Amino acid sequence: MITNTELEYKGDLYPTKIVSFEHDVDSVYFHTDNSVILKVTVLRDSLIRFRFTTKGYFSNDFSYAVDKSHSHGYNFLEVSEHEVFYQIKTSKVKCKIQKSDMRLSIYDLEDTIILEDELGFHWEESYEYGGNIVKMSKSSKDGECFYGLGDKATQMNLKGKRIENFATDQYAFQKDQEPLYKVVPFYIGLHNKKSYGIFFDNTFRTFFDFCHERRNVTSYWAEGGEMNYYFIYGPQMQDVVTTYTDLTGKPELPPLWALGYHQCKWSYYPESNLKEIAAKFRALKIPCDALYLDIDYMDGFRCFTWNKNYFPDPKRMVAELAEDGFKTVVIIDPGIKIDKEYSVYKEALANDYFCKRADGPYMKGKVWPGECNFPDFTNPTVREWWAGLFKELISDIGVKGVWNDMNEPAVMEVPNKTFPMDVRHHYDGNPCSHRKAHNIYGTQMARATYHGVKRFAYPKRPFVITRSAYAGAQRYTSSWTGDNVATWEHLWIANIQVQRMSISGMGFTGSDIGGFAEQPSGELYARWIQLGVFHPFCRTHSSGDHGDQEPWAFDDEVIDITRKFVNLRYQLLPYLYTMFWQYIEEGVPMLKPLVYFDQEDTQTHYRNDEFVFGNQIVVCPILEPNALGRRMYLPRGEWYNYWTNELCKGGKELWVDTKFDQIPIFIKAGSIIPKYPVQQYVGELEFDELILDVYYKDGKELSVVYEDAQDGYDYKKGRYSFMSFQATGKENELIIQAHQEGKYVTNYSKYKMNLIGLPFKVETLEIDNVAVVFDSDTLEKEGYILVEKGFISFHIMGNLD
Question: At what angle do helices 314-323 and 271-284 cross, to 10 degrees?
């Protein structure tokens, strides 16, 4: 007998009416008559989690993204039932869930709508793979803008865009190309001067549509897993980003040298070539702290080995480079060469550490060493083994950092560039296929690498960099934006990508300066350096296939520009280090797009180029050839042109003249910017004064400076110095009040106060209310006063010119 067994195509399915609810401490459960359950959990007054299941029960609750070490808590929670809806109220927002169809809406306490469902949660059964395609659609308000989602190569404002999240090796990617290397399913919405955030914590392939398919509808969906998202209320974008970063975690401080300039190429070998590079940096006096070794340093591209023909004595070489201030960073990829004589392969094989196909055999794929197997980094036992492999590199040889590449994971010569979707993963005790594990594979590799480097670098701090990442990877690693191209368009892309990564929780990010693929002109390289020194991670890197890309590969003018701007970065290291401290302490992004800096100014909502470096420096790169100036938008307030010290009013677009050796840089009036003297590498010099560039303002401005031993963990025991300087400018006087926290004593004993923009001639100086004689000639000619550190009040007075 033959029967029709064709599966019924049901299309989109929806929750039906709610038949019951229960309130359990911080969570409220809603049940429908078609077995949908919605669990609403209030983590904070402004942070609410929404979790749906269509099975009548929830699977094990597990997330690689959420930082479990951090506790949450709310101040107020009230659950009430009304005629047609249930309401959950906190001290910040009200959430209404409709009884008829489970659609929800969120309001502030003044009943202004923040976010509301359009179709709301719905799903489609996936008979091919099992489970559901889970979907969510929200109504978008008129004029609403969208930001975030990691390193997307598109406009800062995502309105009208459709985004795909599937970690992919995209060599020489183009503007607007999807998907890329990283997956950060978090976006920020802004309308009516109020911001909110959505974090869709689902590691399957996900999509976001920001009014692209349907006007005034925003939707997101995943090819499997749960509809599990977090709503974050601002109303300021700063609050949204800080809460998200706190939810997914913050890194520890890097060693200060990791914030210096780094040089990389595929590849520097043999040893003599690497030594030539090092010597040239020092001869040209271009500061540099780290040199990188790409895959050619290995024996046949086998991880954790050395090619002894190129590098006969790695320990000696690394030590000699260290004597001249260079830290060595090496690449490690996930593919382990199938070679029965290779110890790493034999260990993994003996312990069953490799990923397997669904029907049993090990996953096999081609990467640089040839045929490889791949460790299952979602298995904690495998991560522990992997961490232990770094002992020789870090403890014995003295390598200072590790660079994880190809960890999307990338596989060559296959159509989808990665593992087959049937590959199985441990997933920390939640077994799954590669459909679920793909997007977090690179993060779990970086996590294992981080723990290994940290273990063997101790008592120093680890440094790890990764190409692929999922939300939360910032707890373990820095990152870069992947295989870009030496074009002006890619300079524009790099600028936006790093800003976007910064407000997506992953602040320690940079691009390959000059472009990885192809060869930049001298002008493009110079303009890229001028931008790159204002990115938290600062590294030149190139494929080497198209020519050399060291600063001296170009003419003397480019060498001079490179030196000038790298010198500026090294001068600004205390400012940059302070930015990093605020990032790890408060979740404040180090780079701030103008919309983050001032969301109430609608002129910032579509700006791509300008950004705020830290809290007090506006940077606007030159993104076109042959430019001797550009139009830019200066945010509201008063700003000093860094090059001319001219005071400018913000809140408007203006033309800024520049030279080839300049880009527009503006300092917020009232700021006190800390600087070190130029060093060829971090720790080269001992100096007796900290430079403070004091920019006068008629009013008040707070500036801060964080310092510690620049490496190690004493800062966690209170051995740090956190200086706050409150500057108050009046018509004919300037008062700076200083306050110190922490037990760290800096080596310098003086402040060199560069006084900029004073509207009066200084006549008297009081330190802690005691008159002090100062060198008036030096002040008049050089513009600075030298004072002993440790003061509480610095007070200058004078006569108006």
Answer: 0
750-756: strand order across its sheet? 672-675, 689-695, 750-756, 784-788
Taking residue 241's Cβ as centre, other Cβ atoms within 10 Å add up to 28
* Spatial separation of the C-alpha atoms in residues 332 and 738, rounded to whole Å: 46
Could you tell me the two tokens for 614?
A: 């830290």
381 residue type, one letter: T
**pLDDT tens-digit map of 595-622:** 999 999 999 999 999 999 999 999 999 9
Residues 151, 226, 296, 408: which is the catalytic one?
A: 408
Q: Is 548 a catalytic residue?
A: no
Distance between CA atoms of residues 124 and 322, nearest Å: 58
For residue 372, the cross-strand partners are 337, 365
The yes-or-no answer on residue 693 being catalytic is: no
Helix or strand run (H / E) with residue 433? strand 432-433
282: DSSP letter: H
Q: Which helix (H) or strand (E) holds 107?
A: strand 104-108
Per-residue pLDDT reduced to its tens digit, 472-527? 999 999 999 999 999 999 999 999 999 999 999 999 999 999 999 999 999 999 99
| Active-site residue (options: 405, 638, 701, 708) | 405
CA dihedral sign of residues 548, 553, 558, 562: positive
Q: Rounded CA gap, 472 and 254, in Å? A: 17
Positions of E strands within 241-349: 261-263, 290-293, 327-332, 336-337
408 included as an active-site residue: yes
Spatial contact of 365 and 412, defined as CB atoms under 8 Å apart: yes
Strands 464-466 and 401-404: parallel
* Residue whose token pair is 């300037």: 734
Per DSSP, the residues of 743-783 read S---S--EEEEEEES-SEEEEEEEETTEE----HHHHHHH-
Q: Are β-strands 365-367 and 370-373 bridged in parallel, bridged antiparallel, or unpaired?
A: antiparallel
- Name the token pair of 720: 């740090």
For the stretch 30-61, pLDDT in tens is 999 999 999 999 999 999 999 999 999 999 99
* CA–CA dist 611, 729 (Å, integer): 26
Lowest-confidence range among 2-6, 73-77, 156-160, 721-725? 2-6
Distance CA 205, CA 223 (A): 6
Comparing C-alpha atoms, which of 454, 404, 400, 446 is closest to residue 257? 400
Cis before residue 380, ω within 30 degrees of 0?
no
Question: For residue 142, what pLDDT band results from cuts at 50, 70 and 90?
Answer: very high
Reported as a single tens digit per residue, the pLDDT across 237-294 is 999 999 999 999 999 999 999 999 999 999 999 999 999 999 999 999 999 999 999 9
pLDDT band at 391 (very low <50, low <70, confident <90, very high): very high
Burial of 129 from C-beta contacts in 10 A (0-12 / 13-18 / 19+): middle
Q: Which residues pair with 191 in a beta bridge?
A: 194
Q: Which of 483, 512, 550, 610 is catalytic?
A: 483
The radius of gyration of the chain from alpha carbons, rounded to an integer in Å, stands at 28
Grouping H, G, I as helix, E, B as strand and the rest as coil, residue 42 is: strand
- Is the backbone peptide bond immediately before 759 cis, with ω within 30 degrees of 0? no
Burial class (CB in 10 A: 0-12, 13-18, 19+), 183: buried
Listing DSSP states for 582-650 in one string gives HHHHH---SEEEHHHH-TT-GGGTT--S-EEETTTEEE----STT-SEEEEEEPSSEEEETTT--EEE-
